[in-house]
Amino acid sequence: MKAHIDFTDAALEHIAQLRMPTPTIRLGLKPAGCTGFEYVIEWDNIIAASDFTEDFGTFKIAINYESYPRLRGSTVDVVTEGINRTVRILNPQEKAACGCGASVNF
Question: What is the C-alpha to C-alpha distance for residues 5 and 8, in angstroms, rounded to an integer?
């Protein structure tokens, strides 16, 4: 099933520079923080039959069935602030975020 996630050019360039331990990046959500959910971005080599996936040529993404409704339509970006690079998920479905930015709500 198609994941419907986009990556900015900056995110694609960032991923191309990484040494990927597996060709699959898992995006998801877990209950956490003061607002409700925290984004999860991790390497994975197991794709379940119920996962939503998308192939970006040099890598694939997988999103579990439970996280997909809240992540659909999101864009993954890489933002440089000073000497720090941060991967961010720009999600039009977010309704609120905590002050530190670690957790979000839908």
Answer: 10
Q: Which two tokens stand for residue 28?
A: 């998801």
Domain range spanning residue 90? 6-105
Cα 83 from chain centroid? 22
Cα dihedral across residues 92, 59, 28, 77: positive or negative: negative
Neighbouring C-beta atoms of residue 83, cutoff 10 Å: 5
Per-residue pLDDT reduced to its tens digit, 35-67: 788 989 999 999 999 999 999 988 999 999 999
Give the domain CATH number at 31: 2.60.300.12
Enter the DSSP assignment of 2: B
Q: Enter the pTM of the model.
A: 0.84
* β-strand partners of 48: none
